[in-house]
Every structure is written in structure tokens, then in C-alpha cells.
Amino acid sequence: MSRLEIYSPEGLRLDGRRWNELRRFESSINTHPHASDGSSYLEQGNNKIITLVKGPKEPTSRSQVDTNKALLRISVNITQFSKFERSKSSHRNERRVLEMQTALVRTFEKNVMLNLYPRTLIDIEIHVLQQDGGIMGSLLNGITLALIDAGIAMYDYISGISVGLYDTTPLLDVNSLEETAMSSVTLGVVGKSEKLSLLLVEDKIPLDRMETVLAIGIAGAHRIRDLMDEELRSHAEKRVANASSR
Amino acid sequence: MVLSVAEKSYLYDSLASKPSIRPDGRLPHQFRPIEIFTNFLPSSDGSSRIIASDGSECIVSIKSKVVDHSIENDLVQVDINVAGERDDSIIVETLSSLMNKVLKSNKGIDTSKLQLTKKYSFKIFIDVLIISSYSYPASLISFSIFSALKATKLPKLVSSFDDLEVEELPMFHDYDLVTLDVNPPLVFVLAIVGDNIFIDPASNETEVANNGLIVTWSNGKVISPIKTLALNDRYINGFNPLLLKNGIKLVEQYGQNIADALENL
Amino acid sequence: MAKEIEISNSESKFLLEALRQNYRLDGRSFSQFRDVKIAFGDEYGDVTIEMGKTKVHCRISCQITQPYEDRPFEGLFLISTENSPMAGPQFENGNNTNEDEVLIARIIEKAVRRSGALDIEGLCIVAGSKCWAVRADVHFLNCDGGFIDASCIAVMAGLLHFRKPDITVHGEQVIMHPVDEREPVPLGILHVPICVTFSFFNPMDTEENIKGDTNAEITIIDATLKEELLRDGVLTVTLNKNREVVQVSKAGGLPMDALSLMECCRKAYAITEEITDKITYVLKKDEKRRNKFADLLTSENARETS
């Protein structure tokens, strides 16, 4: 296989973006009003993710009752057809997926006002229909949108993004080709602040480059927050218009 | 769906009366409206997403792989995944055995259409994901498999068909695709209430059904498997064998309309 | 059923109040790593690490097997982390699906295996048919926090200490020489990753943490078990002496300012250097102990003196 040119001397990436450009980001909320209390459908590049929030509802078993706050449960279903090559085995119960679920729960536990919903269960179900790099960030975005649709109280948006480092150039919002070719950092940023709720680095990165990578990531995450905010506001406007025209 | 005794009794009586009255005013052979989207997953060869009016939703992806059909004789594989259910739960296992039976019978998917050369064939993987369902999802699944297969486009073969003499691997055109021309069977779920029979029972209708029928249809004919199905655990009892005939007739009469509707999206 | 450790209200209040006043229960400063004791066993690749009351044992072993079909030029490397009730009542036998245990296993896996600390291509004997399979078994003997840090040091010290039997290859045939016949050979270690875990505490309310800009969160290094039970967030940074960040994991928890996280990484680098030097020093000492008579036996020595 010939080596692909990840970043051309002219400053273009494989899919024609520049280093600081996001992928196409399209989202919609309230996509599954019958099946859930809050839902979102997110396309970030070729990542396609359905998120369903069910709850706050009565827990199914006694052991899940917490008298002080709601219990948050997240299950990630990465479908076998989500990658270009179909995977032979189901991803359920894989350690990587369990780790993702734990990281997502711990991220949102601190951001959702769980103390407002004691004795309840908030169940989040995610279906990854297609993945193309930076999946963890997209999951964060999908959950944020669905939680807002469900009307669950949160302190702020959490927006997720991955930044790769190609030699010395940080590349914003990596796709799967770029992700396999270089090391990348995943960030979960709280609202418009510079606070990171989630930070994952899985491959080697020079310590002295970390700061620039984080700075680019935070800027990208703020942009995603704005895109999500726009979508939510336009959705709300539509709803208000529908309600008043009736 | 939780219904009170009074609601159930009212539902049962109206469904069992002659002529029957369905709660949403449908005729016995009438389906609820459905929405279908196809080919929305670029990394699959074919895909479809079907949403019923009660919010039941099913996503199907078709992927293919080139295999040597003298070694691999199973050219169709169906995997069913129901959100919130384990892979070994009863509903998942019964649905996958039903769909495997339907698609792999000799009236199912015509595997000769998958043959590429004398040695190689496409093997197709049908992955079904049920996001939510409120009534027995068998017909929802079969409709979405049908529309996904109809929308499936596979790479076009450019190397020669005869590869037994000269050993070569199949070669494909860079971008030309051919439509997969198969006619998968459709599965219909019918509910029996009293002496009446209904197509596409809604969840409240299944609650009071005396029995359920699964009828498979392909190319204008009713084919096997045909079987009964317990739709609830309270009202189930035997039914007049004549109703089986009525049910088959009903499917034979309207099956083609459904297939046409699904094909001409 | 594993028993969750519960900490009493008065004890937790005491500990948090002490942290607010810049004190830790064991008298360490906030950025002080516990003293690491590394002890080697009689055999190669047998290491016990002690950090305060935390005790981790690691045993490296190897055998010849067949490589994976899709990777004919690579050997096998497996790290298994085994929790048992021996370490503390919160662990269950044979059940490794607990959230924390999955995270521990994954982080060690990423820090050591995925980062390529061990040269697995060097484990290849005959491409496609024979290779070494190196196995690191980590056992947690006593738990007082800092499992990830301790087991990472244990695995790396073990790998550096381990010697695999020497082999001779004749075509497809491989002869393995017993350790007492021929000097065994060390493994190829490409870099030494060291994990440093930071724990975060929020001294104020949640609104201040998310909306405020005081950044008053308390950060401590190498928490003990009690501190681990009470912390609001955790960050594990893995670095090596080449100033490379090997792995960072902050899986949720208390949101932290990006700059303070960078500060953590820098602090971690100083600790990494310290621990790497310590490992090298201990290894050298062990080597000397093993080869008591080396100085007398080498001919080089004789030449030098003459």
C-alpha cells in the first residue's frame, strides 16, 4: 500500500480540510420522541450516532435506588457494521467499550444535576451506526444534545473533540485515516470555559507540544458548542412557532 | 402496554364484532403508515431505516465479502440486535431463527444471484438493529431487510466469469456498481381476535389477541414458514382452522401491493 | 459479593478539612510521591513493589508459541492484572468487570503494551511459526491506593530485569538452552513509561468549579486509599524520560482547568525521571549482587590492571 499523504505541503489534509477545520457537523434533537424522553441524531463527518435518553424513571431494581441522587447509566452499542470492514464479533462487553462507558458516566455525573432527581434512573442508550475517527468526542456531543432534549438539568454543555498531532502540526477533528496514522488527544470541554472534564491520550505525544494541542482542541470544542447551541435554538424556535400557530 | 380490564374488554369486543372495529379505524388488511429511508450509510453496501407510526424503529445494514463458495456454502448471514436485550434473550433468538429460516429457505434469497465467478461468490451480512419496538417486530424487520436489499449495490465484476482454468481473484470496476437483484420474502404478522383476523396489529390489539399468525410471502405466493405466535399471555387460546385459510388469503391478496410499495420508494 | 469500603462522615470531613489547610494524613506534601521500594526475587523477572502500604508483585515469564497469523514478525506480549480479596475486601475473586478494575487494566495496557515499551518484533524467532510469548502477571497484594502507578513500575522493572533463555536456530529447528547452560538474554526495552496519578478535590461547591474562575481545586499526587475513596476526579499521566507523553487518562470526574492539567504533566515528568533513575540504580545493584565474582573472572579486568 502506498503511503497516504496525511498533510500535504500546501497545508491540505486527506479530505481537503485545513489543519484547523472541523468536519461537517450536523445534529438534530427530538428524533425519537416515541422511544425516549430525549434523543439526538448526530453526524460528525462520517460518524453517525443515535442517542436516546430514557428517564428520569423509576429504577427497575431496588439496588439501583439512591436516595440522594439519580443513577446515571450509559450503554454504548457499537454496531458490527459501523466500520468499513464488518467486525466479526459483537463489541458488547469488550473492555474498550466498558472503559468508554465508564468514562462517559464519570464525565456526565459531574455535569448533570443528579441531586435534583433522587431515587430515579437516567438511562442513556447510544447506537453508533457508523464510525470514522474521534468517536469518543462525538459520543459526548450526542449525549449533551439528548440530555438537553430530555430537559435534564445540567450545568453546561460538554463538547467533545479529537486533535491529532502530525509531526509538529496539530490537526483538528481527526478522521479514522488520520487517527491510525498519528497520535491524537480527545478532550471533553465544559461550556465556554477552559475546563476539561475528559482528557484522553492513547499514544505518544511530546510533552512540550501538549499545550498547543490542548489550545487548538479547546477552540474547536467551543466551536462545536456553538454549533450545538444553534441547532438547539433553531429547533426550539420551530417548536414555539408550531405551538403558537395551533 | 398496560391496559385496564375495562379497556381490554372494550377492545376485545369491538375487534371481535362483525364487522370489526379497530381502535385506530383501520380496515383488517390495512397497515399503519411507515417511513423508510434507504442508503444512508455510505460504508455499507445497502442500508435502510424504517420507522413505524408508533415510533418502532429498525435499521438494517447490508455488507458483502467475497468468499470461495466451495468452502463457504452459507452465503447469507442474518444478525439481529434488539436494543436493551441480551444476544441470548428469547426474543432475539426467536427472531433470528425466524429470519434465517425465511431468508435461507430455497424460496428465500436466490443465492445464484450472489455468484461472481465459478469459484467465488459474494457473501452478504444482514445486520438488523431494532432501536425500539412496541409490537412484535417481525414484519418491520422483514420490510426493512427487503428495502435494504432492494437498495443494495455491489461492485461490478470486470474479470472473467470462468476462473477454474486460470486461477485468478475476482477484479472489480473502480466505481461502477450493479444493483443486487433479489426478491427476499416478506413476513406478515396477523392477529386473531374471535373470528376476525387483522394485518399489522398495533400494541393494544396484540394485548387482546386470541392468537397470532406469522405468514411468509414471496413473489405472489404464500410460502413457508407459517406459524402461530403467542402475542400476549392472557387471552391465548385455539382458533378456528378456517381462520388460517382466511389469513393466508388476506396475505396473498395484499402481499403484492406491499412489495410494490416497498420497491417503488 | 464484594464489600464496598465505607468511610465515616466524621473521618471524611476531617480528611477534607485537613486538605483545605494544606495537610495530608500521612504528612506528605501535595506533590510528594511515596517512597518506592523495589525488591527483586531470586529468579529473573520477579519483582515486588512497595509504596507505603501498597504492595504489588509482578512476575514475568515466557514461552515459545506460534505468532498471530496477521502478525508473523511479532511476538506476543500479555499483561494480566489479577485482583483478589487478598488486596482488600473491595475486590472480588475472578470478577474483573468492576469499573475501576477495567480502568486499571486498560491504563496499564495502554501505558506499557500499546506504547511499545517492549520490542515485540525482537521476540520473533522464525517468522510466522515461532516466537516468544512474554507474559506479565501482576498481583495486587495489599491496597493502599496508587495501584496503577505501582503496577506500571512493577511491570517495567520486571521487564528490565527479566532474561529469556538463549536460543539457537537451525532453519525451522530451535534449540532452547537452559539458563544454567548459557547466559540468558535480556528483552529489548524501547522506553520506560512511568504512570503518575493525580487526585482532585473540590473544596467549594459545584457551581464554583464549573462556572467560577478561581481554580481553587486541590491537586494531590499519589493518593492513599482513603484519599482515593473521597476524591472528585482523577488523572493518570504516563510519561517517559524522552519527554514523551505516553498516555493520559482523565475519564470524567471533576472538570479541571487545562493549564492546571499541563502543570500536572510537568510535575509528573520530574517524578518520572526520579523513578526511572531509581529503577536503573536498583537494577544495577541487583546485577552486581548476582555477579559477585564477575570482576574476578573477566579477562578484561586482568588486562586493565596489567
TrEMBL record, chain A:
Domain Exoribonuclease phosphorolytic intervals:
21-152, 156-219
Quaternary arrangement and interactors, per the entry?
Answer: Component of the RNA exosome complex. Specifically part of the catalytically inactive RNA exosome core complex (Exo-9) which may associate with the catalytic subunits RRP6 and DIS3 in cytoplasmic- and nuclear-specific RNA exosome complex forms. Exo-9 is formed by a hexameric base ring of RNase PH domain-containing subunits and a cap ring consisting of CSL4, RRP4 and RRP40.
| Annotated source species | Naumovozyma dairenensis (strain ATCC 10597 / BCRC 20456 / CBS 421 / NBRC 0211 / NRRL Y-12639)
Record family assignment:
Belongs to the RNase PH family.
Q: Which domain of life is it from?
A: Eukaryota
Pfam family of this protein, just one? RNase_PH
Question: Which of UniProt's keywords are assigned here?
Answer: Cytoplasm, Exosome
This chain is encoded by the gene named: NDAI0C02930
Q: What is any one of the record's Gene Ontology cellular component terms?
A: cytoplasmic exosome (RNase complex)
- Single GO molecular-function term? RNA binding
Tell me the lineage of the source organism: Eukaryota, Fungi, Dikarya, Ascomycota, Saccharomycotina
Q: Which SUPFAM superfamilies match?
A: Ribonuclease PH domain 2-like (SSF55666), Ribosomal protein S5 domain 2-like (SSF54211)
Q: Which InterPro entries match?
A: ExoRNase_PH_dom1, ExoRNase_PH_dom2, ExoRNase_PH_dom2_sf, PNPase/RNase_PH_dom_sf, Ribosomal_Su5_D2-typ_SF, RNase_PH
Q: Where in the cell is it found?
A: Cytoplasm; Nucleus, Nucleolus
One GO BP annotation is: termination of RNA polymerase II transcription, exosome-dependent
Q: Provide the protein name.
A: Ribosomal RNA-processing protein 41
UniProtKB/TrEMBL annotation, chain B:
Query: From the UniProt record, which GO molecular function terms apply?
Result: mRNA 3'-UTR AU-rich region binding
Listed under GO cellular component are: cytoplasmic exosome (RNase complex); nuclear exosome (RNase complex); nucleolus
Major subcellular location class: cytoplasm
- Keyword field: Cytoplasm, Exosome
Q: Which gene encodes it?
A: NDAI0H03350
Query: What InterPro entries does UniProt report for this protein, alphabetically?
Result: ExoRNase_PH_dom2_sf, Exosome_comp_Rrp42_subfam, PNPase/RNase_PH_dom_sf, Ribosomal_Su5_D2-typ_SF
Would you tell me the protein name for this molecule? Answer: Ribosomal RNA-processing protein 42
Where is it localised?
Cytoplasm; Nucleus, Nucleolus
Q: Which family does it belong to?
A: Belongs to the RNase PH family.
Q: Name one GO biological process term.
A: U4 snRNA 3'-end processing
The protein's organism comes out as: Naumovozyma dairenensis (strain ATCC 10597 / BCRC 20456 / CBS 421 / NBRC 0211 / NRRL Y-12639) (Saccharomyces dairenensis)
From TrEMBL, chain C:
SUPFAM superfamilies membership? Ribonuclease PH domain 2-like, Ribosomal protein S5 domain 2-like
- GO CC terms: cytoplasmic exosome (RNase complex); nuclear exosome (RNase complex); nucleolus
- Subcellular location(s) per record: Cytoplasm; Nucleus, Nucleolus
Q: Which residues lie in coiled coils? A: none
Tree of life domain? Eukaryota
Query: Which InterPro entries does this chain map to?
Result: ExoRNase_PH_dom1 (IPR001247), ExoRNase_PH_dom2 (IPR015847), ExoRNase_PH_dom2_sf (IPR036345), Exosome_comp_Rrp42_subfam (IPR050590), PNPase/RNase_PH_dom_sf (IPR027408), Ribosomal_Su5_D2-typ_SF (IPR020568), Rrp45 (IPR033100)
Q: Does the keyword Cytoplasm apply?
A: yes
State any GO BP term from the record. nuclear mRNA surveillance
- GO molecular function terms here? mRNA 3'-UTR AU-rich region binding
List the protein's name.
Exosome complex component RRP45
Recorded family membership? Belongs to the RNase PH family.
Species name for this entry? Naumovozyma dairenensis (strain ATCC 10597 / BCRC 20456 / CBS 421 / NBRC 0211 / NRRL Y-12639) (Saccharomyces dairenensis)
Which terms are listed as keywords in the entry?
Answer: Cytoplasm, Exosome, Nucleus, RNA-binding, rRNA processing
Residue intervals of the Exoribonuclease phosphorolytic domain = 32-165, 191-269
